[in-house]
Design goal:
The structure holds 2 protein chains of 2 kinds. Chain A is α+β, with helices and mostly antiparallel strands. Chain A has 8 helices and 7 strands, in the order E-E-H-E-E-E-E-E-H-H-H-H-H-H-H. In chain A, strands 2-1-5-3-4 form a 5-stranded mixed sheet, covered by helices on one side. Chain A has a two-stranded antiparallel sheet with strand order 6-7. In chain A, a hairpin with a 2-residue loop joins strand 3 and strand 4. Classes of the chains: A alpha+beta, B alpha/beta.
């Protein structure tokens, strides 16, 4: 099939303002991913097209982009999902994720995103000594399952940069940071839930969430982000985890 | 412009499992910098799925000595047995340490770390598969990477994210640091230090179909080779049996560990013929070859070049009964809980739900058993006599200790990362405390800066992707799963031509400085081609079949002549030379490998 690909381009070394690059691709398979298309442009037509990518199967989190107006990983978004059923032609538009400064083309500055991540104490904290027998701490399967969903996060920023509250105010920690806080708050082995909940309770914490659900739709790992945020809100409201 | 100079005692190149584990340990007593060409959480450790091998014995009898024997046998007796004992003994301790760091392993009903069966891991008394792979669903590598990164954040390790290391500063038999490009600005930086660790992963991108990330271009190994360090056992590269057809995306061996079976076009569970004892859980080289033999015999699915991996409960339960596991059976829900990512991959890329339909698979280039030679403390060796280059370290896939020998067992890569990453970190910090910082040579970055300017302004007509494609086809056709002398000799000659064409004629479109991935990809391709050359040279010389190196013209293992490691040296004029070092044997005498 044929694809008309429009890509938002901006190179601060040359361009005064962003522009649209338009590329025609033939012989595209419906099972090709948007990353495959971008690679074809970069490798065959214009080597200056710039993007991040690594694993190419949705586990490293490098290539979150805005594809036809919605956030996704380029490597997990197949052409089949972007065309009308059975059509042999499609138009696809790719832009950088919103709310973070564009560095070049599809590459954005990830530092503010990782700063929010670091602000929620995203690491295991306990003051209890390890078991005397030198073995692992025990955890029931039920306790383990409480935070299973939020352990899947790959820090791709698709959720945070789809969030209207984050667009409105980039001081908001954003859904990804709350997902990370959730992963530890609900881990029965961790002992810093209170500290993290205090951070979540601050001005730019969890209450900035307006339950738009964009984050859940954007998550390439199918994490129920809005639900995780709701569980953190509930813990703050009820005082129990 | 002059390069920007930073000084840190220990410099760690690579932010995957090995690099981060080393960073945690080295940073306890030394000033450490971790440089990654990605964000560390993008590293390919995160793509490892099924588990980390450690004989915890949480559900059934197991001990580290069985794990050692399985590893040595899996490696077709090329593993150094002293190193293997360290791997398997330390494995138990290091998995517990990961749990103490907060890693969310799955749990048995007892509350202990959950373990599953995996290829080649057995109860040495019964010969049956043993539950040794400690796991967090089918994203164990992801959880290891996340946990180690979290701990590094907690311990305030210095990270230089998206700094692409492109050269090692070596002066005689000392190292003084590395040169890196800050990707965002295109500026060159020198990291001046006492000790350097390469933990840069593998080079599966030398082949057409691979499970490896685009970023796995073997930079660290190639840099070392250019700075006079040989590459050990390059002819041993693992093809994982179960990659998604055409795409190469990994489908964990854990699928077979949970009871999944391989089925050919005639509906036959063909591994019963190749490995009567442990069948689908034979080691990876054996299973990959079996798949190719089935396809060659016309028994692929519909005669095509793939077979099926079947984890549907009906099929699995049928074969569990047949194999005498009367009390084992699985359900759809169990599969969905234990293998959620696999289901996600096959639904996304194939439209196949694995609890209802079998998955089309073919072998995929997966893992380098060979690499930068090290001793058991991750110290890099300069030659096959065992001379240490003080201050230089390597760990993880880019290194060759050698624990994996001629074929790595599943789960042992994650074990290797944390065990030898930890040893590297401890050893580096000791070295830093015992030595003074040696001065930087003048103009330490000039040579590599000139090389980049040469590539940037080369007036050629060859595109990076076209040259890469040619190299990948050569490696797939001539230095792949089955090997023969003449095609390998051709590959040696033709890869040298590809390298020359790359050198003379490669051209990039992007001449700028800022985030110039066009230029970096061109440079990475040079690394890949040279590693492909070292692989082809080493493979063409080894006249026997052992582990992943399978030759039609020398089908038998030859312990009389070839029970030895190869060392491939790249000379200044681009020629390659080989040397050999005997295997460190131990408790296990080489014998025929039967599964």
């Amino acid at each position: 099939m044929k694809i008309d690909l429009r890509v938002r381009r901006f190179n601060p070394e040359k361009d005064e303002k962003p522009w649209w690059g338009e590329y025609k691709l033939d012989d595209v398979n419906s099972t090709d991913s948007v990353l495959d298309l971008l690679h074809r442009v970069k490798w065959e037509q214009d080597g200056t097209l710039t993007l991040r990518r690594s694993c190419a199967h949705g586990v490293c989190g490098s290539d979150a982009m805005r594809i036809n107006g919605a956030n996704a990983l380029a490597c997990k978004m197949l052409v089949a999902r972007l065309r009308k059923e059975g059509a042999d032609h499609a138009k696809i538009q790719v832009e950088p994720i919103l709310g973070l400064t564009v560095v070049k083309d599809l590459v954005v500055d990830m530092e503010p995103f990782f700063d929010h991540y670091k602000s929620v104490l995203p690491f295991f904290i306990t003051n209890t000594a390890v078991p005397e027998d030198g073995r692992e701490r025990l955890q029931t399967q039920e306790d383990r399952s409480r935070f299973d969903d939020t352990t899947k996060c790959i820090l791709c920023a698709a959720c945070t940069t789809s969030c209207p509250s984050f667009w409105a105010n980039d001081k908001y920690v954003g859904p990804a940071a709350i997902v990370q806080a959730h992963r530890f708050i609900f881990d029965s082995r961790d002992e810093a839930a209170e500290e993290r909940l205090n951070i979540m309770n601050e001005q730019f914490g969890v209450w900035k969430c307006r339950t738009a659900f964009n984050c859940t739709s954007a998550c390439p790992r199918d994490i129920e982000v809005t639900r995780a945020i709701a569980e953190v809100k509930m813990a703050l409201t009820t005082g129990t985890i | 412009m002059k390069p920007i100079i930073h000084t840190h005692e220990a410099i760690i190149v690579g932010g995957g499992g090995a690099g981060l584990m080393a960073a945690l340990y080295a940073s306890r007593n030394s000033d450490v910098a971790v440089l990654s060409k990605l964000y560390p959480t993008r590293s390919h450790t995160g793509a490892a799925q099924g588990g980390i091998g450690a004989a915890l014995g949480n559900e059934e009898d197991d001990n580290w000595e069985w794990h050692s024997y399985d590893t040595v046998k899996g490696g077709d007796y090329l593993s150094d047995q002293d190193a293997v004992d360290i791997l398997t003994k330390d494995a138990v301790d290091v998995v517990i340490e990961l749990e103490h760091m907060g890693l969310p392993f799955d749990r048995f009903p007892s509350g202990r770390i959950s373990q599953r069966r995996f290829g080649g891991h057995t109860n040495n008394e019964t010969g049956r598969p043993v539950m040794r792979a400690c796991h967090a669903a089918d994203r164990t590598g992801h959880m290891i990477l996340q946990t180690l990164y979290q701990q590094c954040i907690k311990n305030k390790v210095n990270f230089f994210d998206e700094f692409h290391v492109v050269d090692l500063i070596r002066v005689g038999d000392t190292v003084r640091g590395v040169v890196a490009i800050e990707i965002d600005t295109g500026d060159f930086h020198i990291f001046h230090g006492k000790a350097v660790l390469f933990a840069t992963g593998g080079w599966g991108r030398c082949w057409e179909v691979t499970s490896n990330a685009h970023s796995l271009t073997g930079d660290g190994a190639a840099i070392c080779m250019r700075r006079g360090i040989p590459m050990e056992d390059m002819e041993f590269f693992q093809f994982h049996p179960t990659g998604i057809f055409k795409l190469g995306i990994l489908i964990t061996e854990g699928v077979r560990g949970e009871g999944g079976v391989l089925i050919n076009g005639e509906g036959e569970r063909f591994m019963e013929r190749y490995a009567p004892s442990i069948k689908d859980l034979a080691s990876r080289d054996v299973v990959s070859r079996a798949i190719y033999l089935e396809i060659q015999a016309g028994r692929g699915i519909n005669g095509k070049n793939y077979v099926h991996l079947d984890i549907t409960p009906d099929t699995v339960n049928h074969y569990l009964q047949k194999d005498g596991y009367k009390d084992r059976s699985i359900t759809r829900e169990y599969i969905e809980e234990k293998l959620p990512d696999i289901a996600d991959f096959t639904k996304t890329y194939l439209g196949v739900d694995p609890v209802h339909e079998p998955m089309p698979i073919q072998p995929t280039a997966h893992y380098a058993m060979g690499g930068i030679p090290t001793d058991n403390d991750a110290r890099v060796l300069l030659d096959h006599e065992g001379t240490v280059l003080p201050g230089l370290y390597a760990a993880g896939e880019c290194a060759c200790v050698s624990v994996h020998g001629a074929n790595r067992l599943g789960t042992n890569s994650l074990t290797d990362l944390v065990v030898f990453g930890r040893r590297a970190g401890k050893e580096m910090t000791k070295f830093c405390q015992e030595t003074e910082l040696l001065p930087l040579p003048e103009n330490a970055a000039d040579e590599i800066i000139a090389e980049f300017e040469r590539i940037r302004h080369n007036q050629g007509s060859s595109k990076v992707f076209a040259l890469r494609d040619r190299m990948q086809k050569l490696m797939t056709e001539k230095v792949g799963v089955f090997r023969v002398q003449e095609p390998m000799d051709q590959a040696v000659t033709q890869l040298a031509e590809v390298y020359q064409q790359w050198y003379d004629d490669v051209s990039v479109d992007d001449k700028g400085k800022k985030f110039n991935t066009d230029l970096l990809e061109a440079w990475e391709l040079g690394c890949l081609i040279q590693l492909a050359q070292a692989t082809a040279v080493s493979a063409a010389a080894r006249q026997e079949s052992r582990g992943a190196h399978a030759r039609d013209d020398y089908p038998k293992r030859d312990d009389v002549n070839w029970l030895k490691h190869s060392y491939c040296y790249m000379k200044e004029d681009g020629r390659f030379e080989l040397g050999y070092e005997p295997v460190h044997l131990g408790r296990y005498e080489p014998k025929e490998r039967v599964y």
